[in-house]
Amino acid sequence: MSNAKIHESWKIELNEEFAAQYMLDLRSFLKQQILLGKKIYPPMNKIFNAFNFTPLNKVKVVIVGQDPYHGEGQANGLSFSVEKFKKIPPSLQNIFRELSKLNFTEIPVVKEDQPPYLVKIGITNEGSFSLIPRLNQPWPSVMKAITVSAPIWEGEIRGTKHGDWKPYFDARKLALENNADISLLIEDEKLIDGDRCMPILLDIDGIAYYPRVEDGALDSITLEQIHDCLEDSGIPIRPAIITMNLILRAREMIVIGSGMGIQSLGEIDGRKIGNPRGRLYESAMSCWLSRLSNAWESIEEMS
User: Fold this and answer.
1) Strands 237-240 and 208-211
2) What architecture (CATH level 2) is domain 8-98?
3) Do residues 216 and 187 lie in contact, with contact meaning Cβ atoms separated by under 8 Å?
């Protein structure tokens, strides 16, 4: 099965499994069933679809679910997902129904460059499930930050990767107490992360850099949304070790996040950083607004 349609990072790791006899037998069986006119879901070219959206080096948690979709054209290799214009199966309708019941009583206070709300999804050790809406706040046109020591956790897993949000909340609280907007987390004189946001700087070499996951940064959903667009706009973007020298020589800095969108960062610990709201900010904002306009579907559209 060397020709399996699966992301290359997984193919390398699973090569021996694909060559194993049980896998060859399974593939042969499925092909025979198709020749006999049997319906196999999902289609053969989408069996490993989930792996194509999640390269191995990006995977942090694997959740094994149940209730596969078995209607004509519904299964696409992804959990809680069907192709466009297909009838929504009952289990997925239940999820949308619960989302529609959320009571957004507060009036949005942000502009079109930020989602008005976020939904916090909680699951306790006992299996209790909760959906809590949160009103997003507006931000100043140019933000200020302070630096704080990055929290240290035992073992290789760090920060919110193991569900510990408290140090990030504490860092934000400390920023507000010091008349700043956010905290930047520093370890061994390098920038590790922001308090629930991803810092990005535009270097004098014209390349945008952001903290590396292996140094403790969190993967950014917002960055995933704008990454390719930034590249297309002529700004290469790369993970890097972000030293204080790199920050001080930066042309510009921004911070991004699901709740804050794209924001300009102009000051760190009272020191001016680059030229705020420049090329990086404008390009990232344009990419973000495009994604906000085109990358979402309402519950009504999906039902």
Assistant:
1) parallel
2) 3-Layer(aba) Sandwich (3.40)
3) yes
